[in-house]
Design goal:
Structural class: alpha/beta
Helix content: 40-55%
Oligomer: single chain
Radius of gyration: 18 Å
Strand order of the largest sheet: 1-2-3-4
Strand content: 5-15%
Number of helices: 11
Order of helices and strands: EHEHHHHHEHEHHHH
Distance between the termini: 23 Å
Length: 221
């Protein structure tokens, strides 16, 4: 399991050493390198904001920053005490592109659970990553009220989603259906009956989630 930069590193490891990875949970992953527009915006922002504030804007939604609710103050205090945070930020923004291709040679061969919170700064990047991965091996979870860091805002729901993901890989016995499972089953039924053949690969991913213990889109109520 990796978050942000950690998710990028784990995905890169999975591409380089597919035989050493059995499954990945990637939260807030951005598989793309920074473009010229992103680079220019980053440089301009750096003239008016500190590195700490730039990272906070990367981690949390604008609503979370404005409310300054936990864990924003704690993360700000931690970043201000880190001696190498500037180097970390520079290295992350100079990352290369993973080069993922859904039907190409560059793709993750193991089961993958992609997680992002609604209205998260990373939402578009995670959706794009989902579009580039094998739909039969990938589950996409957009967490309601997850904010910028769903593992901090909704740890119980993420733990339950992780449990079903591991069950789908065959490492845990099936358990009684919970609220998350019932919601996922309803979502699959609605998607299948309403969209028919037009859902394509996404429908296969949702069906795999309901039968094998994975997590489909919009699984969390």
């Amino acid at each position: 399991m990796g978050v942000g930069a950690g998710a990028f590193i784990l995905a890169k490891f999975g591409l380089c050493h597919p035989d050493a990875v059995e499954g990945l949970v990637l939260i807030n992953i951005d598989p793309n390198a920074k473009g010229w527009m992103d680079w220019a915006a980053h440089k301009l922002s750096g003239l008016t904001s500190s590195t700490t504030e730039l990272i906070l804007g990367h981690l949390f939604t604008q609503e979370e920053l404005a409310a300054a609710a936990p864990p924003v103050p704690e993360v700000r205090e931690h970043l201000q005490s880190c001696p190498n945070v500037g180097l970390y930020w520079a290295m992350y923004n100079s990352r290369g592109d993973l080069g993922l291709q859904r039907n190409g040679a560059v793709t993750l061969r193991c089961p993958v659970l992609l997680v992002v919170g609604d209205n998260s700064p990373h939402e578009d990047a995670v959706v794009e990553c989902n579009a580039k991965l094998d739909p039969t091996q990938t589950s996409f979870l957009k967490m309601a009220d997850g904010g910028g860091q769903p593992q901090l805002r909704q740890p119980a729901k993420l733990t339950e989603a992780f449990k079903y993901f591991v069950q789908g890989m065959g490492y845990m016995p099936s358990s009684a259906m919970t609220r998350l499972s019932r919601s996922r089953t309803a979502s699959v039924s609605s998607s299948t009956s309403g969209d028919g053949d037009k859902t394509g690969g996404r429908s296969r991913t949702l069906s795999r989630g309901s039968l094998g213990g994975g997590v489909g889109a919009n699984a969390v109520p």
